[in-house]
Design goal:
Largest interface: C-D, 62 and 62 residues
Radius of gyration of chain A: 19 Å
CATH class of chain A: Mainly Alpha
Shape of chain A: elongated
Distance between the termini of chain A: 51 Å
Oligomer: homotetramer
Largest sheet of chain A: none
Number of domains of chain A: 1
Strand content of chain A: under 5%
Number of strands of chain A: 0
CATH superfamily of chain A: Tetracycline Repressor, domain 2
CATH topology of chain A: Tetracycline Repressor, domain 2
DNA sequence: GATGAATGAGATTTCATTCAT
DNA sequence: AATGAATGAAATCTCATTCAT
């Protein structure tokens, strides 16, 4: 339900109004309660839909034969794709992460797990370090670094756009997807740092 | 008012309850209205206090004589210090950034401006690129990369701790502060990438 | 409709839910409105059925040739029979009598009238008093005494069972039917009281 | 709260309207929720007040030195006194007894227990039977008979008044209080029945 | 400064009833 | 006869805000 996603994004769960959502969806308020038992269920279903899609998509993204660089590029692109498809989801997600409830955390955790991404990447980093191609470091730090390089901009875009005077975000994003991988790969390379 | 910060952090602005805040502060609800004009003003004052302190602190942080590395280290440390001092502020800030209102954005923008950090760093990156010590790239991308490497973990710590199985966060943070600078400096170096 | 009677008994007219009644009857809610004009009509029909049966049964109970004792025994037995057949009716009836509406009172009044019982019993008491076999008293008091001796237990059984520690109600009822007549007949006898 | 008692009496718990109760009490609806947490609590407090008074009164009614007849007279009078003081309570009570919830039953049970009445009367009946002054019978039957003779009319007055054509209830009640005791005492006497 | 009571507007939820198929 | 969806009115409850003391 798009109208619901919109209200949850703009006002948050507590600030969202069932009245407004119904009006936005051009249906009678009582119909919301006919299809969903409560505002809470409406909320869960609304974000659950996106979560499920994200899980499915991420799971199918990798065959296991990719190079490290390919994986990084795919992940970087995926984050932006998801946010382009569900622009309002960014708000909802951030609010959830602002004060994460165990239930929601597990939900998101599940998405990552389903993709196999964390374990695969961690293992991969471990191998690369052992092989001497990546400098000695905690693989978890590397993983977090890469994810935050991506998610950080996705989440904070409005602030950064203002501070940095970014006017054409589409263009900037295309650039960023490459920059992120480049910086990261350079950053973790073993060498005379 | 700690009780207010707590409620705003846990429930968000719309979910916060004046009743609960009063009870948490062991005062009569009407007293809140004696000190503040409205819930909105209470909110602004509550977070404004932190904002002001952050502004002051950041402004005084730099004399202009620091090396790039010193600046990066200082910024990395500062983020964690602020969050350690006001742990609940992280939630409040994230909620604000989830659906930023121009007014709040300007507030935060002001903090950065006051510190002189963005312009100084951008200029500095420009110089370093011109001097060939940093690979050719958009200084804004570099700036965003560095900030997200820091802020990303600060904001998403609960999620990352779960995904990565981090149990001792204090320790991990100490490690991260160094890792972030190292990865970034390595990542932006000019060289045979 | 048993499901309706059940809901009216358990929740009362205002507390009964058309949804629940439909579900209990395994039919679609709209079907209820196909058969009955409204909740009110459903209610009237539901209890009207029992009322009509009670009227018919009581009317046919007496030929006019019975002795006083026979009548009393028949009435005492009849109350319990009705409640055994429609156990939930007791609740419905009590609720109605809790705040009797003229319309419902007339309904019940009609049952008594149809049976010819009140006038017959009152006349009979009058004769017995005149003949000196029953002590001088207001026949209406006698009538009420006999009816309450019966109806009182029927209506308050759950409370009495608790207070008196009655575990086998069936057995107790058999005993009560006799006790009631005996006590009453003894109680109204003329003699040296 | 009289307005609440009134609405509960006339409409039952489910049919009572907080709006109406507030209006009847000339207070703001929200004040009801300020003083009572919910409609349910308002209900419990409303009837609890009467229950408590009844408990206290009944407990203090007997010193232990009364003759059987005195006790019976006192009980008979008490029922009518209570109903005269809280005329609407009759409705509320009947509705509760229509579909008794364990919690409410226990409440009422407690009142009887506190008065010591049931155990005292049962014991008394036992003694009288053993002494041959009361005919052999189940004391519980006697007890129920006496209570229903009283409560029956109290509860069913509106119906009986209609059926019997009783116009001056006050007068009738005075008569009934004596009649009930007389009929009962006669009815339980041992003798050639 | 401090408090308990008060209030109006509005939020979520419910429900008898009807409609379209 | 049967159903799922729809609706308007209203019910319970909440909450920011103010008042009287």
């Amino acid at each position: 339900m798009l109208s619901a996603m919109h209200d949850f994004a703009v006002h948050g769960y507590e600030g969202a109004r069932v009245d407004r959502i119904a009006e936005g969806a051009s249906i009678n308020k009582a119909m919301i309660y006919y299809h969903f038992r409560s505002k809470e269920e409406l909320y869960r279903e609304t974000i659950g839909e996106v979560y499920r899609e994200a899980t499915d998509k991420l799971s199918s993204l990798f065959t296991g034969e990719e190079t490290l660089e390919e994986i990084l590029h795919a992940v970087a692109a995926y984050h932006h794709d998801l946010m382009r498809k569900y622009p309002e989801f960014r708000s909802v997600l951030m609010r959830e992460l602002a004060h994460p409830r165990r239930e929601i955390l597990s939900y998101i955790f599940g998405i990552f797990e389903a993709s196999g991404l964390p374990s695969r990447l961690l293992a991969r980093f471990g191998e690369e370090i052992k092989a001497g191609r990546v400098r000695k470091s905690d693989p978890r730090q590397l993983m977090i670094s890469f994810l935050t390089l991506n998610l950080g901009y996705v989440m904070l875009a409005p602030l950064f756009d203002l501070i940095m005077g970014i006017s054409d975000r589409e263009l900037f994003v295309e650039d960023r997807k490459k920059e992120v991988v480049k910086l990261f790969l350079n950053g973790i390379r073993s060498g005379r740092s």
